[in-house]
Amino acid sequence: MTVPKLVLASSSPRRRELLAQIGVVPDRIQSPDIDETPHAGELPRIYAARMAAEKAAAVPREAGECVLAGDTTVALGRRIMPPARDNDTVRACLKLMSGRRHRVFSGVALIAADGTLRRKLSESIVKFKRLSSAEIDAYVDSGEGLGKAAGYAIQGRAAALIPFMSGSYTGVVGLPLLETRTLLLTAGFHV
């Protein structure tokens, strides 16, 4: 059986780095262009799974290619936290999450060479310590939270602000490797 070619439907350098940890290098990378607006009343876990599947479906596949996509969604209760496009959003997210636990849903979707869509979802719990204004300001000033789900990167400076985490660390970073490996194995990859 020939090993299919892998297309990563993501522009995230973290997802490429995580795949490299398990010895996977995409043959092609293409960022999907989709509307990522949550539906009214959509639950965070459903949203993360839907986004991963829609990102995978948005990237054209050639013969013998599989498309892999992921989505990381941070939720405070039923509230989907926004991606941090600016410092004000980073600050607002950190204030909301200060001293509280939140959930991180990391959806991964793979469209196999035969067109079959398979999906997995990891769920993790992360707790921030109670953050002082100075800690929030320092994190915002670092610029690290820009472009990240809920304005933080657990693999960076934010790690020093998190006393508790349960679940998939790689899922919180951006791609749950256990679930991703399982999907790749079902599609014929040797991982």
Automatic annotation (TrEMBL):
Active-site positions on this chain: 71
Subcellular location, record wording: Cytoplasm
Top-rank taxon: Bacteria
Residue(s) at site: Important for substrate specificity: 14, 72, 155
Classification via CDD domains: Maf
Catalytic activity: dTTP + H2O = dTMP + diphosphate + H(+); UTP + H2O = UMP + diphosphate + H(+)
Pfam families in the record: Maf
Co-factor requirement: a divalent metal cation
EC number: 3.6.1.9
Predominant localisation class: cytoplasm
Keyword entries, A-Z: Cytoplasm, Hydrolase, Nucleotide metabolism
The protein's role, per its UniProt record: Nucleoside triphosphate pyrophosphatase that hydrolyzes dTTP and UTP. May have a dual role in cell division arrest and in preventing the incorporation of modified nucleotides into cellular nucleic acids.
Similarity annotation: Belongs to the Maf family. YhdE subfamily.
Protein name: dTTP/UTP pyrophosphatase
Gene this protein is translated from: maf
